[in-house]
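re: ur question from earlier - yeah i can do the single chain one, its not a big deal. heres the input i used so u can compare w yours
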Amino acid sequence: MYLKRLKDLREDRDLKQVNIAEILKITRQQYSLYELGKRDIPAEYIKILAKFYNTSTDYILELTDEIKPYKRNN
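and the output i got, formated as tokens:
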């Protein structure tokens, strides 16, 4: 489930939930509910985190195992 990807991406960078909460401009408690699966994470937050982690939303949502972000077409 994508919740594990969120946690893994965060932990791979030695970040705490509070660090990610600051990026999303929410409380640590709110972010914790997302990682625990007790609340659905808004799509806008997934987009922000994909940019922050330099990956794709598809990777976070486990639609692909390719961690590299997609190349943008101009």
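The chain has five helices and no strands. not sure if urs matches, ping me
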